Amino acid sequence: MSSVEATQTQAADAGDRKSASLIVDNKSVEVPVYEGTIGPEVIDISKLYGTSGYFTYDPGFTSTASCESKITYIDGENGILLYRGYPIDQLAEHGDFLETCHLLLYGELPNASQYEDFKGRVTYHTMLHEQMNRFYTGFRRDAHPMAIMVGVVGALSAFYHDSTDIADPVQRDIASIRMIAKMPTIAAMAYKYSIGQPFIYPRNDLDYSANFLQMCFAVPCEEYKADPVLARAMDRIFVLHADHEQNASTSTVRLAGSSGANPFACISAGIACLWGPAHGGANEAALNMLEEIGTPDRIPEYVDRAKDKDDPFRLMGFGHRVYKNYDPRARIMQKTTHEVLDALGLRNDPTLQVALELEKIALEDEYFVEKKLYPNIDFYSGITLRALGFPTTMFTVLFALARTVGWIAQWREMIEDPQQRIGRPRQLYTGPTEREYVRIGDR
Ligand code: SDX
User: Fold this and answer.
1) % of the chain beyond a pLDDT of 70
2) Ligand 1: centre distance to CA 323 (Å)
3) Is the pLDDT reported for residue 183 higher than 50?
4) Which atom of ligand 1 is found nearest the CA of 306?
5) What is the pLDDT of residue 74?
6) Is pLDDT at 15 greater than 90 in this prediction?
């Protein structure tokens, strides 16, 4: 049986190049170590198989960096989230979603003229090819809107052929703008279809989030008045959800893109992954859980179930792969929840009371303290989105709408990375060794 021993990272003699040595079958294998601007250093094992005949093994990628990136940084121990170096609380407080889109896509906050130009380009692309309306009528009215999103977004590649050549930077940029611009229209149409109301066209005189709310809640029979407090809250929710490093859906988009698939197909793959309740589907699951708990007196029963190893129940909206501290987005989300409920005169929303009490109990319980489980962005978002008028089935759609800019920014970075090649992980095989075929009569 081979033994593998890792020795300490050593500063190599030659210059400041760092390396680590792995002892594999009594042979020392040198592997380079790279430093980022902030965050953990990485050990480059890309040549390990070629030099040692060993794979590494990391199901769930808990200790594996899949790429180099300059977009988003998370310090999970200290609950810090930076978009291109800017703290999420400052962007949520002082900026808006389109400004955040410019920052994530191009690396810098736009000045006034760049902002107006970017806003104009997005506004110009908000309409959908009229023929795409027919996709919706192919779905049942009670189809989950995430199923519609996966289908319609994937179908964009059947209509916008002039922005599917990923080798052309101009086409990549048009596809990026189209995705950011059309997601609110596609999402609003999915909502309207589910309630049997006519589709509402985008309006160029409204800003991004107010336009989205009017496409969702306006009706042809009367003029729609956008509530600036609710539009601001919607916009801030989009900022909070815009990007989050190499999470499951972003990794899906990167892997799909590494084969050369067109951007619309890659985003559709990201939407499908985000739908899972362990990921973006948690906001819908968290609100359903809070409503099922119903009253604060029933909280202990659910906390006990969440702690029971034999019970698959988990506290939805709690815990995170990276945050072992309070998710900074959850803190801002809770503040936004209070603002929206106050603006709507729903301060005593019973579900919010359950959420606040559940958070208090969980954060004092040694199980959650020991496992460093804190509320994540999905814990409060559902209460706010329901107050804004959305059904729970639309919650993950809104997450996908906001995360589209993050997916696109990460996809572009992957395409433009000179080290980029098709992603193709290996495995630890534990299946049958080779054996001879047996005819059915002899089995
Ligand atoms: C998002 O990656 C991202 O960045 C995602 C995201 C983004 O912006 O893209 O932040 C969005 O997906 C937020 C997370 C939303 N999901 C949920 O709220 C669902 C509930 N949370 C869990 O399913 C879980 O916490 C995960 C999936 C979020 C994280 O899972 P991990 O990192 O694989 O952790 P784990 O499942 O190994 O849990 C570690 C321990 C386990 O106990 P032990 O096996 O060690 O005894 O903590 C326990 C788990 O049982 N645990 C929970 C729990 N979450 C973890 N126990 C009860 N309730 C929970 N919510």
Assistant:
1) 96
2) 10
3) yes
4) 57
5) 97
6) no
Question: How remote is the CA of residue 312 from the centroid of ligand 1, in Å?
Answer: 12
Mean pLDDT of the chain: 94
- Give the residue, by CA position, lying nearest to ligand 1 atom 7: 244
The per-residue pLDDT for 3 is 52
What residue has token string 């059309």?
A: 182
Strand segments, DSSP code E, in 39-139 are 42-43, 72-75, 80-83, 86-87
**How many angstroms separate the CA atoms of 270 and 285, rounded?**
19
Q: Which of 108, 68, 62 is nearest to 85 (CA)?
A: 108
- pLDDT recorded at residue 5: 54
Query: Ligand 1 test: best mutation among 83, 320, 331, most atoms within 8 Å of CB?
Result: 320
Residue 366 backbone dihedrals phi, psi, to 5 degrees = -65, -25
The DSSP call for residue 130 is G
106: left (phi over 0), alpha (psi -120 to 50) or beta: alpha
Q: CA of 236: how far to CAs of 92, 96, 176, 385, in Å?
A: 6, 7, 21, 12
Please write down the HEC assignment for all residues of 209-230. HHHHHHHHHCCCCCCCCCCHHH
SS3 for 168?
A: coil
Q: Residue 291: which of 382, 374, 363 has the closest Cα?
A: 382
pLDDT score of 12: 44
Closest ligand 1 atom number to CA of residue 243: 8
Place 429 in a pLDDT band, splitting at 50, 70 and 90: very high
- pLDDT score of 9 more than 70: no
List Cβ neighbours of 277 (8 Å cut-off, separation of 6 or more): 284, 285, 316
Nearest CA to ligand 1 atom 46: 309
Cα dihedral sign for 28, 34, 40, 44?
Answer: negative
- pLDDT of 362 reads 87
| Locus of tokens 């970075």 | 413
Active site residues: 320, 378
Q: What is the pLDDT of residues 97-156, one digit of tens each?
A: 999 999 999 999 999 999 999 999 999 999 999 999 999 999 999 999 999 999 999 999
From 81, 274, 372, 376, the mutation candidate for ligand 1 (largest count of ligand atoms within 8 A of CB) is 376
Which ligand 1 atom lies nearest to the CA of residue 247? Answer: 2
* Cβ proximity of 4 and 22 under 8 Å: yes
Cα(426) to centroid(ligand 1), Å: 25
Among 297, 250, 265, which residue's Cα sits nearest to residue 157? 265
The pLDDT of residue 13 is 45
